[in-house]
Amino acid sequence: MSCSPSILHFAHATSLSTFRVVELEGDLDYSSKLDRSSSMIERLLLMGQERAAWFFDGRSLWPR
């Protein structure tokens, strides 16, 4: 059985890809996706700064 070149290319690219996920703690619900207030933006920036180091270690590798 042979595969088309596009399928082989996709499989090759997928096997070399690394995905990283850094989850934020807190009460981020659906409404938080729509909140563009300065206090919410500042809160998200602070949460991101606290978790930035996680991006470079094993805690961020996906799938787990």
Which terms summarize this structure?
6% strand, 64 residues, two-stranded antiparallel ribbon, elongated, mainly alpha
Helix and strand succession? HEHE
Give the overall average pLDDT.
Answer: 79
* Alpha-beta classification: mainly alpha
Which strand order do you get reading across the main beta sheet?
1-2
Sketch the major β-sheet.
Answer: 2 strands, antiparallel
Uncertain ranges: 6-13
Q: Cα-atom Rg, whole angstroms?
A: 18 Å
Helical region count?
2
Provide the helix percentage: 40-55%
Q: Can you count the beta strands?
A: 2
- The 3D shape can be described as elongated
> What percent of residues are in strands?
5-15%
Descriptive report:
- The chain has 64 residues and is mainly alpha-helical.
- It has a domain at 19-62.
- It contains two helices and two strands; from the N terminus they run αβαβ.
- The protein has a two-stranded antiparallel sheet.
- The longest helix has 14 residues, at 38-51.
- Mean pLDDT is 79; it is low at 6-13.
SSE blueprint:
Layout lengths: L4 H12 L2 E2 L17 H14 L9 E2 L2
Antiparallel strand pairs: 1-2
Offer a quick outline of the entry.
Helix content is 41%, strand content 6%.
